[in-house]
Structures are given as C-alpha cells and as structure tokens.
Amino acid sequence: MPDYRIIPAILAVDFRTVTHHVKEYQISPDSLPEPARSLVKEEVTLGGPIAEIIDAAEIARQEDGVVKFGLPGGSTLADLMNGLNSVNGGSRQVIDRVYYKCSATSLVGAIDAVRTTLVELVAEMRSTTAPARTPRRRRRTALSKL
Fold first, then answer.
1. Which contiguous run of DSSP H or E holds residue 60?
2. How far is CA 77 from CA 40, 51, 68, in A?
3. Where are the domains of the chain?
4. Which residues, other chains included, contact 92 with Cβ-Cβ below 8 Å and sequence gap of 6+?
5. What confidence tens digit (pLDDT) does each residue in 40-91 have?
6. Exposed site from 17, 74, 127, 146, fewest CB < 10 Å?
C-alpha cells in the first residue's frame, strides 16, 4: 500500500458506567492488552475504492469533520478488555466499541495524493507515446481520408 494511503488516526472507545455513557474517549495503544498493544497503531490504511473515501470525506465534512473506522477484530478486543477489567477487579465500566477517528482533512489529503499520482502517470505515458500513434490522431487521419 502506498504511503499516501496511510493516514493518522486517534484510537477511541465508547464505554458506559453505572451512571455515565462516554463516547469518543481517546486512548493510547499502550492502554490495550497484549497482544493488541503491539499490533494496533495510530494510523488507518485506506485500502478501499477512492469513491468510498471521497464519500466518507464529504459526509464527515457535513457533520463533525471526523470519520470513524472500526478496527479489525474490534468487537473481540472490546470483549477482551471487558473480561480483563472484571478479572482484575477494575472499575465497573463496559467498553461498547473500540475504533479509529480520522479527520476528513486527512482523507482529502489521501484523495489528492491519488489524483496527483494519476496525473503524473498520465503525463509520463503521454510523454513516452509517439504523437502519431495516439488513437485520436489515427481517427482524425482516417476521417480525413474519407
């Protein structure tokens, strides 16, 4: 995956206690249990189609400027954290969700990088293609002979 398809992200959880429901609480990967601690990074790889990324960025801009991405295995990670919390006699909180938060601006930057790369590729292809061999010129030449 190209570097421009990897964007910074904040790791967040939604949790509830007996008296509160907390959303978008930022946590560090260091607060995760092993082995997740060493696997989860504060970045998201945008492997999907550009159309989906554009759509997510547009929706985020209309709302709060943030896109939320689920972690692979995020439900299992939440269950593990809840289990460890109860075994260790921790606070009476239940983690509902573990996910990434990314700014819409980061998505737009990735989209722009893809577009720039495509423009550069097309320019390179045009510069290495002989002008007489382009399909448009062949059509014009064929039409002029009629």
1. helix 50-62
2. 11, 29, 17
3. 3-145
4. 17, 18
5. 999 999 999 999 999 999 999 999 999 999 998 899 999 988 888 766 666 6
6. 146
The burial class, CB within 10 Å (0-12 / 13-18 / 19+), for 28 is exposed
Kind and range of the H or E element at 16?
strand 10-16
90-143 pLDDT, tens digit per residue, is 667 899 999 999 999 999 999 999 999 999 999 999 888 876 555 666 666 655
Two tokens, residue 19: 């008296």
10 SS3 class: strand
Distances (CA, A) of 17 to 21, 31, 77, 142: 6, 18, 18, 76
pTM: 0.77
What is the C-alpha to C-alpha distance for residues 13 and 130, in angstroms, rounded to an integer?
A: 56
